[in-house]
Write a structure and sequence with these properties.
With 145 residues, the chain is mostly helical. The chain is built from six helices and three strands.
């Protein structure tokens, strides 16, 4: 077993490579990495608030707000007022769903291929372990889970 510091370094290198792959994928598709993350979040068929996206994806509120305003003007998303407070839910329009499919289908294909190989070799438990590690790291950094 690797020493804890060496194991952590290997993990951080892997995470940075994964992040870089999404960055390069976004760039090839003509959008920035944060826009790809917001689109990815919205493409699950559920409604999301800007606050939820910011907290879950760790994207600055001003960045998400800029993306949302631009996409609203382009007809990619609509904002739906919630029953309580000022927060609005964000939904993809038909145009937005079509655009998401065009941009995200190659991403989903690559993810599915990598996931299938990984699960076959290791097990789906690696995801649960990574989620636990993420939660423990958030706690250690004093960040809310």
């Amino acid at each position: 077993m690797d020493e804890p510091r060496e194991a952590m370094e290997r993990l951080v290198v892997c995470l940075n490579k994964i992040d870089g792959l999404y960055y390069m994928s976004a760039k090839r598709r003509g959008i920035n990495e944060n826009a790809l993350c917001v689109l990815y979040a919205l493409d699950d068929g559920k409604t999301h608030s800007q606050k939820q996206i910011c907290e879950e994806w760790l994207i600055p509120k001003t960045t998400v707000n800029t993306i949302i305003r631009e996409w609203q003007k382009e007809g990619i998303i609509v904002l739906i007022p919630e029953n309580r407070g000022r927060e609005k839910n964000i939904c993809l329009t038909d145009k937005g769903r079509a655009w998401a499919r065009e941009l995200l289908t190659p991403v989903y294909r690559a993810e599915q291929a990598a996931m299938a190989r990984t699960v076959q070799e290791f097990s789906p438990e690696f995801i649960r372990a990574l989620e636990h590690f993420c939660g423990y790291l958030q706690d250690a950094f004093g960040q809310p889970s």
